[in-house]
Amino acid sequence: MNTRREDQRRAAIEKQIDENLRRVYEQDTTQQIPDRFLQLLDKLREQE
Length: 48
Description:
Largest sheet: none
Protein name: Transcriptional regulator
Mean pLDDT: 84
Structural class: mainly alpha
Number of strands: 0
Strand content: under 5%
Domain Anti-sigma factor NepR: 15-48
Shape: elongated
Organism: Paracoccus halophilus
Oligomer: single chain
Pfam families: NepR (PF18557)
Number of helices: 2
Order of helices and strands: HH
Number of domains: 1
Radius of gyration: 13 Å
Helix content: over 70%
């Protein structure tokens, strides 16, 4: 069951990171999250 708990914890952390990034970029609504940055986040998630 530790694996499930770890997966849930990891998912919660990823959600928090996503929310924090959105908050930063919502401060300037004219600026979108760069594609390069989104690709980097996807690569990091795939490594897990």
